[in-house]
Design a protein that fits this description.
Largest interface: A-B, 25 and 31 residues
Helix content of chain B: 25-40%
Largest sheet of chain A: 9 strands, mixed
CATH architecture of the largest domain in chain B: 3-Layer(aba) Sandwich
Number of helices of chain B: 14
CATH superfamily of the largest domain in chain B: P-loop containing nucleotide triphosphate hydrolases
Strand order of the largest sheet of chain B: 5-6-7-3-8-9
CATH topology of the largest domain in chain B: Rossmann fold
CATH topology of the largest domain in chain A: N-(1-d-carboxylethyl)-l-norvaline Dehydrogenase, domain 2
Oligomer: heterodimer
CATH class of the largest domain in chain B: Alpha Beta
Strand content of chain B: 15-25%
Shape of chain A: globular
Number of domains of chain A: 2
Shape of chain B: elongated
Strand content of chain A: 5-15%
Distance between the termini of chain B: 51 Å
CATH class of the largest domain in chain A: Mainly Alpha
Distance between the termini of chain A: 47 Å
Number of strands of chain B: 18
Chain lengths: 491, 469
């Protein structure tokens, strides 16, 4: 196996790469798709990302075809059906790769080494290889031929969303990067920008980042707050409610839809707005619970970030890949057997506000997770913009998947890499919060505070409000949400 | 006993026909008949008064004595007076029949007649010749005759037209009292004049009774108001945005040319060997059973079907798959379908929905101009929704959403307007409203219309070409 690329860099270079993340202005995309006009784009991987990005790029006037393995063509596999029914040219690697000006590698992470090793020798001199995740370059340290340009274009949504938003005339937020070691002609950025325009991403906002910043922040976010915290929170909150005698159907529903409802408030106005949806006594309670959990979980967040930075995480996961995903598949099966997962949501009505009032602990968990992930990432040299997107910004997106089909849906929508990290986190976090959970009662999860007097101490409320509002994730969030709403403007 | 018209077709001197009328007027009901000019409002009322030749169907329990006030009856009486005058061959200057005599000829209730004569200010005119009266004065005479003949049914066709304010008040008061024991059928162009005692509304269109609604059904009532707005107001379509001109198309090129096209899913062929040319100004109707591929065919044209890239398709100067973007195609097309309505779930305002038509987007993601905003507001006026400009689209009724999407499709005055089953899923009233708007568009714009539907009865005037799948 190749050497971890990040570890091969000097600290100075590492910090420089980690610090890259800039929200690009719409005026930087006036050249449209011109840099790719008339170029041959060949997609590898015809799953949700591959197919839908291809549909968008073609509808933007670009020349897109799909390279499949001979076996996939001969056996008319799903990927072959996806591509041909949509009227794309389909051919073998041997047929198409040598003609490609841009090869879009849209296969899952764990296939990257194999795919890249296969196609790299076939690619024509001076062509471009595009990724949607930097894992292969950064963690696996795959070295790409010097004459090839290497870029990353990563729409920050599932493939179906990428298509649906494009059809609406919009797009999804997209991260682009150029691998500095592979930009021989200096055209990487122009190609990446044109690609982002071709998928509609420029309308929703493009972040200019680096392979390293993308990988290190993406891994951290998905393992901790995004997937890990929501999985741990779901399991702990459900078991506690059952222990406290809450109706199982109600408990299941409160969690399944509670994450989505409470983080919707997060999307609009950050942690501040989410906390403001609680009554004053509940807000103070949630604040105190979050502070307590942050102290308990901080070492775990640090460990995740450290393991990601040193490459220990990726090495562990790659060992599991080599072992036929034994751990991953085992953990996936375990999750399916948890009481939360197995208890269907009841058919009672829960009002939007009730999700907050009866889900104080869930709100506290989101707050603690978002802030801790953000703090840990920025402390490790990832800049605030990246840290914001990989923590607060994506939490509502993941919460939506739980609302659809609980943890099963979340874990099948996210990448295998995220899923693996999520289980790692969960296995450490559940025991870590065990003592904390002993003191939790149904007043903060399941039944609400049920106070006759909702009065609070002024000084304490001011103190709490200021602490919430002055957290650095709130500062950067306000700025970036400003950019986003400027782009989206009305919707 | 209820007056019943059952499947009734009535001819009026070969000039006009009321067709297939089914109508029941129960005791205690007071009806308003409304509709656009020439829709047959007066004819429908005249049937109740025994006019017209029944060609088909049955009318039962028609009243014996009807008090009728209408322009036609008024004109008839005036003409009769004139004939009397002409018939007088003696070389004597005749004054004609005095008003008092005209009234007495039909009155069976002199108390009511006298009371109304005084209230309507006719006392000084009683001795004057009827044919010397002004239009408003003759109308008052007609009203007095109708109200003082102990009628079993009152038919009042635009009774308030031409009356001075004082007389109007007196008449309104009197009618309100009369309505307590005599059924009233009133004809009005404008629903806002509708008196409080009216319980039901009948809507006529092209000689047919298309709607009967109970006035307490506020939703139906509002929809009817809007339909009348579209039907009876002289509406101009808002202009295109001059700052947003579409690329000019070559005049002699067809808008659309499909050659030997096919759509296939796996082993299933939806259609094949299809050639179709749509020239500018050539309106088309496309029909076919479910699953015949109507929508697939349309989406080959709009570019929404991925197989447009493997077919020989020429649209708006572009050969598909030659490096054009889908937005370059869509800019020439206004498109409305049920599917679009389902997809249009963005929580945005009515105004923004219409503006989004300039950008072919679902939701609005671009900075629009003041001009575009103004044009959108003009469209809302056409739809009669000006007061709702800032309401959210998703909170509107299904029919209103459809009207808004049609306005969205038309806002840029597209060379091609595609209406894919625009009436699908709409009730009768909303169907009428949508068709009224489409007819307005067809008559007032230069867009070539491509109209897809199942319902043979939803015809649009001016569409001559027909493709059946």
């Amino acid at each position: 196996m190749a050497e971890n690329y990040f570890n091969s860099l000097s600290l100075r270079e590492q910090l420089e790469q980690l610090g890259k993340c800039r929200f690009m202005h719409l005026s930087e995309f006036t050249d449209g798709v011109n840099a790719l006009k008339g170029k041959k784009m060949v997609v590898i991987g015809c799953g949700a990302q591959g197919l839908n990005q291809g549909l968008n790029l073609r509808d933007s006037g670009l020349d897109v075809s799909y390279a499949l393995r001979q076996a996939a063509i001969d056996e008319k596999r799903q990927s072959w059906k996806n591509a041909t029914e949509n009227g794309f040219t389909v051919g073998t690697y041997e047929d198409l790769i040598p003609t490609a000006d841009v090869v879009l590698n849209l296969t899952p992470d764990k296939q990257h080494t194999n795919v890249v090793n296969t196609v790299m020798p076939m690619m024509k001199e001076g062509a471009c290889l595009s990724y949607s995740h930097g894992f292969n370059i950064v963690e696996e340290g795959t070295k790409i031929r010097d004459d090839l340009t290497v870029i990353m274009v990563a729409p920050k949504c599932p493939g179906t969303e990428v298509r649906a938003e494009y059809v609406r005339g919009f797009g999804v937020p997209t991260l682009i990067a150029v691998h500095d070691d592979n930009d021989p002609k200096g055209e990487g950025l122009a190609i990446a920008k044109a690609y982002a325009v071709g998928t509609g991403g420029h309308k929703a906002g493009v972040l200019m980042s680096s392979f390293i910043a993308e990988v290190k922040s993406d891994l951290m976010g998905e393992q901790t707050i995004l997937c890990g915290m929501l999985q741990t929170g779901s399991l702990l909150c459900f078991d506690k409610m059952i222990e406290e005698g809450v109706d199982p159907g109600y408990a299941s529903k409160l969690i399944q839809y509670g994450w989505e409802t409470t983080t919707e408030a997060l999307k609009y106005g950050g942690v501040t707005n989410m906390m403001d949806r609680l009554s004053n006594p509940a807000k103070i309670k949630a604040f105190e619970l979050a502070e307590e959990m942050k102290d308990i979980m901080r070492p775990l967040y640090n460990k995740h970030q450290d393991d990601i930075m040193t490459g220990k995480f990726s090495a562990t996961m790659m060992a599991d890949w080599a072992n036929d995903d034994k751990e991953l598949l085992g953990w996936r099966a375990d999750t399916a057997e948890t009481p939360f997962e197995k208890t269907p949501a009841g058919d009672m009505d829960i009002s939007e506000q009730e999700y907050f009032d009866n889900g104080i602990l869930m709100v506290a968990m989101v707050k603690a997770g978002v802030e801790l992930a953000f703090e840990t990432m920025t402390a490790a040299g990832i800049i605030a913009d990246s840290a914001y997107y990989e923590s607060l910004h994506e939490t509502p997106l993941i919460a939506n998947t739980i609302a659809r089909k609980k943890l099963f849906e979340m874990n099948s929508t996210i990448s295998d890499t995220a899923e693996y990290g999520c289980y790692l986190y969960n296995h450490a976090c559940v025991p870590l919060l065990q003592d904390f959970m002993k003191n939790i009662k149904s007043d903060v999860i399941g039944k609400g505070l049920q106070l006759n007097d909702t009065g609070v101490d002024n000084a304490r409320l001011i103190e709490v409000n200021e602490a919430i509002r002055n957290h650095p994730v709130e500062e950067i969030g306000a700025t970036l949400r400003g950019h986003m709403s400027d782009m989206k403007r009305i919707v | 006993m209820a007056i019943t018209l059952k499947n009734l077709t009535v001819d009026f001197d070969n000039r006009f026909q009321c067709k297939k009328i089914n109508w029941t007027l129960n005791r205690g009901e007071h009806w308003l008949i409304t509709g656009s000019n020439g829709s047959g409002k007066s004819a429908l009322a005249a049937i109740l008064a025994g006019y017209g030749d029944i060609e088909y169907g049955v009318a039962t329990n028609l009243p014996q004595r009807v008090g009728l006030v209408s322009f036609e009856a008024q004109a008839e009486l005036i003409a009769a007076e004139r004939r009397k005058d002409d018939a007088d061959i003696m070389d004597v200057i005749t004054e004609g029949t005095p008003v008092q005599e005209i009234i007495d000829a039909v009155t069976t209730d002199p108390d009511t007649a006298n009371q109304l004569i005084e209230q309507l200010g006719l006392t000084p005119l009683l001795d004057r010749a009827f044919r010397k009266l002004s239009t408003g004065e003759t109308r008052k005479v007609m009203l007095i005759r109708a109200l003082s003949c102990k009628p079993q049914l009152l038919i009042l066709d635009e009774p308030f037209e031409g009356l001075d304010a004082k007389s109007l008040d007196a008449l309104q008061l009197h009618l309100a009292k009369v309505a307590e024991h005599i059924p009233v059928v009133m004809i009005l162009n404008r629903l806002d004049q509708c008196p409080g005692y009216i319980t039901h509304i009948a809507y006529m269109n092209q000689g047919e009774l298309q709607q009967t609604i109970n006035r307490s059904d506020t939703e139906a009532h509002d929809a009817l108001l809007q339909l009348l707005h579209l039907k009876t107001t002289d509406l101009e379509l808002p202009p295109a945005d001059p700052d947003f001109a579409l690329p000019v198309l070559e005049a002699d090129q067809p808008l659309v040319k499909l050659t030997d096209t096919a759509v296939r899913y796996g082993d299933t062929t939806i259609f094949e060997n299809l050639d179709w040319t749509i020239n500018r100004g050539q309106h088309w109707q496309l029909t076919g059973p479910n699953g015949s591929g109507k929508t697939a065919l349309l989406s080959l044209i709009t570019g929404d079907h991925p197989q447009c890239y493997v077919n020989d398709i020429f649209v708006f100067g572009f050969k598909r798959g030659s490096g054009e973007s889908i937005w370059q195609i869509k800019q020439f097309i206004g498109y409305v379908s049920t599917a679009l309505q389902w997809e249009y779930t963005v929580g945005t305002s009515l105004r923004n929905v219409i503006i989004s038509g300039f950008y072919d987007s679902i939701g609005l993601y671009s900075k629009y101009t003041d001009n575009q905003k103004q044009i959108a507001e003009q469209w809302l006026e056409v739809l009669g929704m000006s007061d709702r400009a800032n309401d959210t689209f998703t909170s509107q009724s299904y029919g209103d959403q459809r009207l808004l999407l049609i306005a969205r499709a038309m806002v840029k005055h597209p060379p091609l307007l595609i209406l894919d089953e625009p009436c699908l899923g709409l009730d009768d009233m909303n169907r009428q409203r949508v068709l009224a708007l489409i007819e307005l568009i067809c008559s007032r714009s230069e867009s070539t219309v491509l109209y897809v539907n199942h319902h043979a009865e939803d015809k649009i005037q001016g569409i001559e070409n027909h493709l059946a799948l």
